[in-house]
């Protein structure tokens, strides 16, 4: 069992900090050819069988059926015609082949006669200097896996989810690859879920920043709020994240709990660890959604409060201005017999009384917090 204890160290290296250049992926197509095959190799007793030239899937499968081992083929965005030959060689189910070519699939696990078809959504955090109403926070890709008795096929869509580094790490641990295709499936599942954890941590920082901005003091110590578009955009990105995480929970539970002919028993127990980490991420993402709902409601409430404050101030000044308007309106009427028209102190008296009334109203409103 010492070999199995090293499984996590091989497929889950220390997670680096997210950087802008993490979105790059390996060159998926040889410029000299139109083939969608990124890599094709035969593994026997956990080691990659050396070859003087790149193998075709047909040649690799003949080697495996003659000498044993398994073949691992990696493809990137194959067309229906490019994938048809491989599907024929390995006897892949037409429905699974259609899903692998069309992409935009929901994460799932499907069992066919001699193979398992697994769909993973990969998530990449998009670095940004400042969150705006148009910022892209997460970018998705897809990895489809065909697991057979003596073959493992990965089909990638999108710019994320490169498996080159993972393949190299597994090749450095031949005792793991000796367990066959199920070890590769676990490594990919663990790699994808580790990516979810890293992205969840980065999204948490964005949400904390928005929350701080919403509740940070503004004028007169009141929260100043933020642009609701930023919160709504972040909520949309979290929803995209949730669509990748939540549907994968059930497939990971099946792989960890239900005995399967194509999954090595020693490897299966480690799917439980992947399922546990996935459940943690799912809870975190669900919490993000609820927290953003609360932040959005708080921001809208603050906007309503700010509008009420403005309306109270406008109403207060309107009340103050109403006094001189009324007085001017009365003395602007053209009647001969009006009080104090002929008195030399009438004009300053009216101005004084008007000013005193306005001052009294202003003081009262100020005391009550309207101004």
Short description:
With 371 residues, the chain is an alpha+beta fold.
What do these coordinates show?
The protein is α+β, with helices and mostly antiparallel strands. It is 55% helix and 13% strand. It is built from 12 helices and 7 strands. It has a 7-stranded mixed beta sheet, sandwiched between helices. α9 packs antiparallel against α11. The longest helix has 67 residues. The radius of gyration is 34 Å and the shape is rod-shaped. The termini are far apart.
Structure characteristics:
single chain; 371 residues; alpha+beta; disordered N terminus
The overall pLDDT, averaged over residues, is 81
Q: Structural class given helices, strands, pairing?
A: alpha+beta
Cα(first) to Cα(last) distance is 75 Å
Low-confidence sequence ranges? 1-5, 13-33
Instruction: Quote the beta fraction.
Output: 5-15%
Order of helices and strands: HHEEHEHHEEEEHHHHHHH
**Can you count the helices?**
12
**In total, how many beta strands?**
7
The proportion of residues forming helix, as a percent range, comes to: 40-55%
What is the makeup of the main sheet? 7 strands, mixed
Radius of gyration: 34 Å
């Amino acid at each position: 069992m010492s070999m199995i204890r090293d499984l996590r160290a091989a497929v889950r290296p220390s997670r680096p900090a997210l950087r802008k250049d993490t979105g790059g992926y390996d060159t998926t197509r040889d410029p000299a050819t139109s083939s969608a095959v990124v890599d094709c190799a035969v593994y026997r007793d956990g080691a990659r069988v050396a070859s003087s030239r790149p193998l075709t899937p047909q040649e690799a499968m003949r080697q495996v059926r003659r000498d044993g081992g398994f073949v691992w083929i990696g493809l990137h965005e194959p067309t229906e015609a490019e994938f048809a030959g491989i599907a024929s060689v390995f006897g892949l189910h037409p429905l699974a082949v259609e899903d692998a070519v069309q992409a935009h699939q929901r994460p799932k696990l499907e069992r066919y006669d001699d193979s398992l078809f697994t769909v993973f959504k990969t998530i990449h955090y998009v670095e940004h200097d400042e969150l705006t109403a148009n910022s892209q926070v997460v970018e998705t890709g897809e990895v489809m896996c065909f697991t057979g008795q003596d073959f493992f096929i990965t089909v990638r869509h999108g710019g994320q989810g490169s498996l080159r580094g993972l393949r190299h790490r597994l090749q450095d641990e031949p005792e793991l690859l000796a367990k066959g295709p199920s070890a590769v499936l676990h490594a990919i599942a663990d790699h994808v879920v580790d990516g979810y954890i890293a992205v969840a941590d980065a999204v948490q920082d964005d949400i904390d920043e928005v929350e701080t901005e919403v509740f940070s003091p503004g004028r007169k110590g009141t929260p100043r709020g933020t642009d609701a578009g930023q919160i709504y955009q972040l909520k949309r990105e979290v929803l995209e994240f949730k669509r990748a995480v939540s549907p994968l929970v059930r497939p990971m539970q099946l792989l960890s709990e239900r005995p399967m002919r194509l999954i090595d028993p020693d490897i299966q127990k480690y799917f439980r660890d992947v399922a546990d980490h996935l459940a943690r991420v799912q809870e975190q993402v669900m919490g993000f959604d609820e927290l953003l709902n609360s932040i959005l409601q708080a921001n809208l409430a603050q906007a309503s409060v700010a509008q009420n404050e403005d309306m109270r101030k406008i109403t207060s000044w309107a009340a103050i201005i109403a006094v001189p308007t009324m007085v001017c309106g009365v003395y602007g009427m053209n009647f001969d017999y009006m009080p104090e028209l002929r008195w030399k102190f009438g004009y300053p008296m009216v101005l004084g009384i008007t000013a005193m009334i306005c001052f009294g109203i202003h003081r009262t409103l100020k005391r009550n917090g309207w101004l």
